[in-house]
Amino acid sequence: MDKFFDFDKTIEVLQYDFVRNALIAAAILGLLAGVLGPLIVSRNMAFSVHGTSELAVTGGAAALLLGVGVAYGALAGSIIAALVLGLLARRGSEHDSVIGVVLAFGLGLGVLFLWMYPGRASNKFGLLVGQIVSTDFTSIVLLSVCAVIVLGVLAFIYRPLMFASVDPDVAKARGVPTGVLSPIFAVLVGVATALGVQTVGALLVLALMVTPAAAACRITASPVRATILSVVFAEVAVLGGIILSLAPGVPVSAFVTAISFLIYLGARVFSKARATA
């Protein structure tokens, strides 16, 4: 057990600036993921989040190859992916197949870009599992600006978006512009997903964007309470995951996903116990 958690070493590592920066970035990301998560779950967009996160790798790999910031490349890749998916998947029946097609093509490009990149292998690996040491003041500024924009836009469209998520047919009949709201929300999710790539990596960004919200939705049907619980669960998972990963030097994503999964299991047990009580 001491191999995986050394309290004294963890306290020592917490004194470093890059660790404090990572915790600040993670707290912002947890807030974003927690707020967006219940809407993602209610709109059945988990596969979209997965596809967008993988295509963020393509953008990040292209940025490595061009010598620009990985965060900007991942952000551009996610936004482009969200727009392409939104434009091509107009009908729900073809949604998953379109994601699969675009995802395969994007990953192929990403693999090519990473193969062409002559730099360190750790930079390539960081795109997949996260790299908290790369979190600096510039990254926090970018994350903060993006978070403010995402939350601001979401606050403006939240009510009609929630209506369209719960009952899209009735919402459309009552004049809600569902055709406009869907791509806007997809872009918001794309931005948040790209930011998550920097912390937990593309392969496991679902641990933050979907799992906490799925756990919250098992406990309550209230959108407000589900959002609050989702934010709490996401913060516990990402902050706890970073702190637990410090001493052993294990990739952050390993702990983040483990905590998220345990929270989800606990929510399912609680839900089942309440239903049988």
TrEMBL record:
The keyword Lipoprotein does not apply. GO terms for cellular component: ATP-binding cassette (ABC) transporter complex. One of its GO terms (molecular function) is helicase activity. The keyword Ribosomal protein does not apply. Its main location: membrane. SUPFAM superfamilies: ABC transporter involved in vitamin B12 uptake, BtuC. It is found in: Cell membrane; Membrane. One of its GO terms (biological process) is transmembrane transport. It holds the Pfam family ABC-3. Belongs to the ABC-3 integral membrane protein family. This is Helicase. It comes from Kibdelosporangium phytohabitans.
